[in-house]
Each structure stands twice: as C-alpha cells, then as structure tokens.
Amino acid sequence: MTEEERKKYGADTVRVMGSRLHPFISGQPFRIRYLQEVLLLVSSWKDKKG
Question: Which residue from 1, 13, 23, 39 has the highest number of Cβ atoms inside 10 Å of its Cβ?
C-alpha cells in the first residue's frame, strides 16, 4: 500500500488486532492480573503513522 492509499483510506477504516489466548493462560485466576497488565499496555500503544 502506498502512502497516498494510506492517507486516502486510513481515516475511514478500522484496524483490528486479533489474538488468541489458550485456556492455560485465560482460565487461571492467578494469571488474570498479568493478562490485564498486558492488555492495558497494548491498548495504550499509539498507532504509528507512515
């Protein structure tokens, strides 16, 4: 995708990052704290432009 295409379509599109979590991680109560920390970190990242 060229820079012009990114400028043209970038404002009108949504970007999604999918991730899968194994029950070994998401199904353990003592691991939820670390999962929440990672999700907060990732959601705080700003989209790089250019």
Answer: 39
